[in-house]
């Protein structure tokens, strides 16, 4: 790492869900900016392919479904990357099915809640003591427009994102004032493997990542990307219109 001034307040940033979609683009853009990036994912092959892209990039394989292993994972990350100050909790899974669909049972519900909500909260909790020692630290929580207006075929996903949004709010209030800030990242429909084959205009993942990073640089407590800004306005002033759009999705 050189001593040049970086465009971000953290010299090292962890990104979960780093091997595809928004996470992959965040990793690429942060590394290109000279930030030391720790890319965390589950797929070893994809991580190995990613590891050769930049000297600023380190890959870490972990399964966030193993909730009991998260404190030890956080300890390893801090030991290996003492300058870690940015954390983007991006990993997520969405089952695009009706809640009463055949084959969508307790295991699927449990895993969706674990990856989208429980695991990122536990990882944030485990990393907080270290982050509090850094001059400037950020915990960024990736949520969705669905946190405001749920999608009928993604009931559990919508619920987890609503919960994660409220977690970001509460954590921000708890940490103020202090060196660690909690930020909510609200994204619209983005063109990722998660949304493959679904109708509707999708924001390219590269553009979504660039907007997220610009928002993080701005210091705003809530970063709304693209159509998520219009969705927030509709949710406040014309929620029936937003609900109609979600029912059709």
UniProtKB/TrEMBL annotation:
Presence of keyword Oxidoreductase = yes
Per UniProt, residues of the Ketoreductase domain are 11-196
Q: Which UniProt keywords apply?
A: Oxidoreductase
Cite the Gene3D superfamilies for this sequence.
Answer: NAD(P)-binding Rossmann-like Domain (3.40.50.720)
A single GO CC term for this protein reads: membrane
Matches recorded under Pfam families: adh_short (PF00106)
Q: Which InterPro entries match?
A: KR_dom, NAD(P)-bd_dom_sf, SDR_fam
Q: Does the keyword Oxidoreductase apply?
A: yes
Q: Name one GO molecular function term.
A: oxidoreductase activity
Q: Tell me which family the UniProt entry assigns to this protein.
A: Belongs to the short-chain dehydrogenases/reductases (SDR) family.
Protein name (record): Ketoreductase domain-containing protein
* Organism of origin: Piscinibacter gummiphilus
Q: What high-level taxonomic lineage is stated for the organism?
A: Bacteria, Pseudomonadati, Pseudomonadota, Betaproteobacteria, Burkholderiales
